[in-house]
Amino acid sequence: MPPEVDYVPRLVDARLRQYLGAFPAVLITGPRAAGKTTSASRAAAEIVRLDQPAQAAAFQADPDAALRRRAEPLLLDEWQEVPAVLGAVKRAVDADPRPGRFIITGSVRAELTNQTWPGTGRLTRLAMYGLTEREIAGRVDVGYSVLDAIASGLPDTVRLPVQRPDLVEYVDLALRGGFPAVALSDMPADMRIDWLDGYVSQLLTRDAREVDPGRDALKLGRYLQAVAAHSATEIDHKSLYDAAGIDRRTATAYDALLDALFVIEQVQPWDDNQLKRLTATPKRYVIDPAVMASAIGATTAGIVANGKLLGGIIDTFMMAQLRPEVALASGRTARRHLRTKNGREEVDIVLEQADGRLLALEVKATSAPTAADARHLAWLRDKIGDRFIGGTVLHTGPDAFLLGERLMAVPICAFWG
Fold it and tell me: Does 6 map to a domain?
């Protein structure tokens, strides 16, 4: 096992250990450069880097033979460079389903590039994203869940850091993003911008070509720019592809491609028979807020001066903190959004538990939220009754406090308090 040098503990570490104790093969998925290989290598006895030709050669020639007599858990990094390795893992697991045999990492969703996906029933997925502020602050193993605190409805249970950002500092955190190469370094701002611009350029050219060789990088870039400019907002699809100068069919293919590369995600609308006239339009989020800013060339000053863009970047940043928490929460929790067709009521994030109960979140770029900022949460509370666990306005101010019955205001920094 490689030595642990300056490793920043990640939220997925404990879950990975649990999975390896229960399942024969674990597939860690997530954005390129999010730290998947670094985290997986700590649990591996041997590592094969399939993006290095010398190590990949044996797997390209005969993947089944190449898997034999390897130390386990065996980490197969960047599986997409030798897709046939997945079939070999399937056969190895079918022959010997002992837990803890393989860890597989990659930055592409497998199903897009494989007509027959061999992982069903053999590979257990584990999602991993960029660094959260909780991880950067070293608050992974504190035995505290901010979602539990929010669900309690008691401001006194919410833990807050000693240093609490103001609005501009939140924007700075968003533009720094969650990629370890940037987030954990002291590189100057101009070099950080160059790194992120290079990351986006590589996504649009090399990474996109590997997954879907026929796509035009310039058009794909325009579409990503349109999505980034409206990240975390509910906008009709036609407005996006018109802005990019492409047709609907091409835009749908770009959605699938950017999703496969873990650049964007679509958060589906919440639906319920108890409420009528709810929209069916998904919300698109750029997964890392720094990629959002890079795609549109945004700066801190420009974002703060643009109310619409400010709301989008704060909401995108908040989702980047929330996404891993929900993915690793006990029980099944779905992330949704809610909006009525007339647009009178809208809730940014609806967390639906397996039993149908809801925790509703509004994200506001304000330091002093009032009951008026929670009016849509109150509307949802009154509509669904006991199924409503609680509603919270996540804001950029310093304190947590009550806004009404089962309604709270909580600073965004509570996620790393």
Answer: no
